[in-house]
Specification:
It contains seven helices and nine strands. By secondary structure, it is an alpha/beta fold. It has a domain of 124 residues: Rossmann fold (3-Layer(aba) Sandwich). The strands form two sheets. Strands 2-7-1-8-9 form a five-stranded parallel β-sheet, sandwiched between helices.
Length: 180
């Protein structure tokens, strides 16, 4: 039996990592992918912090199944996630929508979970985390919506209200209502 790469995509500030953490708590068998990112550690996001030189050296050595640049940083998904999916595990990862097509070519099964929130919710969350200036937040909010490759099954989850509601909706979309 093949598992799935559950690619969680959506705008910054939509709460992707919070939904991932909630799903992991609700589904102990769900494997959470720990991304590598070329920025300092952040207690609100579980990722491996790498400097640019180390990231590039690891990328060149094949350490990442998927990698992409965004906002002046480099992001990578560990190569071992491919084997985890092939061996029947569902692996959930915070991913860029720009690499969904490549993910579909790399993994035997991909499901896109699109986490959304209203612009005012996103603006408030981005402002609270303090990594972007107000103008940068306005630019993020002006970006076009998410379009997905039509061949990848997907579900959209609104994450404006209580996190428990978004997690329950995501769990139902991924595993069906009442699934064990």
């Amino acid at each position: 039996m093949t598992g799935r790469l559950i690619a969680v995509v959506g705008p910054s500030g939509a709460g992707k990592d919070s939904v991932i953490a909630g799903l992991a708590a609700a589904r102990p068998g769900l494997l959470v992918c720990r991304r590598s990112i070329t920025r300092p550690s952040d207690e609100t996001e579980p990722f491996e912090s790498l400097d640019a030189e180390t990231f590039e050296r690891r990328r060149a050595a094949g350490a990442f199944a998927l990698f992409w640049p965004a906002h002046g940083l480099s992001y990578g998904i560990p190569a071992e996630t491919v084997d985890q999916v092939r061996s029947g595990h569902d692996v959930i990862a915070n991913l860029s929508r720009r690499v969904l097509g490549e993910a579909a070519e790399t993994y035997p099964a991909v499901f896109a979970l699109v986490v959304t929130a209203a612009p005012e919710t996103i603006a408030e969350r981005l402002g609270a985390r303090g990594r972007e200036a107000p103008e940068e937040i306005r630019q993020r909010l002006a970006r076009p919506g998410i379009s997905l490759p039509p061949s990848i099954p997907s579900a959209r989850i609104a994450n404006d209200g209580p996190l428990a509601e978004a997690v329950a909706a995501a769990e139902a979309a991924l595993f069906g209502r009442g699934a064990p």
